[in-house]
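Deliverable D2.4 — example input (structure tokens):
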């Protein structure tokens, strides 16, 4: 009898807990970022709040963000309390992302790897960024751009890897542009030469060039 009462009690409490988690999630999404709200999230320690808190950690990482040291500290505690990770290994997530034709699945794998952000992920994505298909290189730079949390112990290594990728990508872009554009007539000035190059590249059917341009543009925005 006592066990039945206890089960009924848990069943009655479960919807309330879900309602509380939903309320906290809505407040976080609305940007009501008070210390009290972060402490409520920490107390709940619910994995369903982790993605929201992780994203907020990056959004508020900027030194000019309108947030106090107490808020930052409370957010960090709440994020740790709600931390969640996918059960699949890093290598499996990478294989899934590179084989799938489903864009959502590709993006989901990237986000999981970014949040995991451990040494295994670092080694794997550095290797991806150094060789492989354009998609693999872009995936590597995407993960490196947000490794773990802003204060990750691997942040410096990620930035160093991104810097190397940027140099290689820009050089490869220049080489590919030359191959597509060909030799520029001597009578063209610099501005007209650049305009001609952009026009030819834009019309190019070379998939490698297009993907390389997209990756370099993305990478430049991340590094800067």
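Example output (designed residues):
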């Amino acid at each position: 009898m006592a066990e039945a009462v206890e089960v009924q009690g848990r069943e009655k409490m479960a919807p309330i807990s879900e309602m509380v988690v939903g309320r906290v999630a809505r407040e976080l999404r609305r940007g009501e970022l008070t210390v009290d709200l972060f402490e409520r999230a920490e107390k709940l320690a619910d994995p369903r709040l982790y993605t929201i808190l992780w994203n907020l950690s990056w959004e508020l990482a900027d030194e000019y963000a309108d947030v106090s040291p107490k808020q930052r500290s409370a957010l960090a505690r709440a994020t740790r309390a709600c931390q969640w990770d996918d059960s699949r290994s890093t290598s499996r997530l990478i294989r899934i992302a590179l084989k799938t034709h489903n864009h959502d699945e590709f993006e989901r794998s990237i986000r999981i790897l970014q949040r995991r952000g451990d040494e295994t992920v670092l080694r794997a994505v550095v290797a991806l960024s150094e060789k492989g298909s354009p998609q693999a290189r872009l995936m590597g730079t995407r993960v490196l751009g947000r490794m773990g949390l802003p204060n990750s112990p691997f942040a410096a290594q990620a930035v160093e890897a991104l810097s190397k990728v940027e140099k290689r990508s820009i050089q490869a872009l220049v080489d590919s542009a030359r191959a597509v554009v060909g030799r520029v007539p001597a009578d063209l000035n610099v501005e007209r030469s650049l305009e001609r190059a952009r026009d030819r590249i834009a019309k190019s059917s070379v998939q490698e060039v297009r993907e390389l341009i997209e990756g370099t543009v993305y990478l430049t925005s991340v590094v800067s």
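The chain has two domains: 2-81, 90-223.
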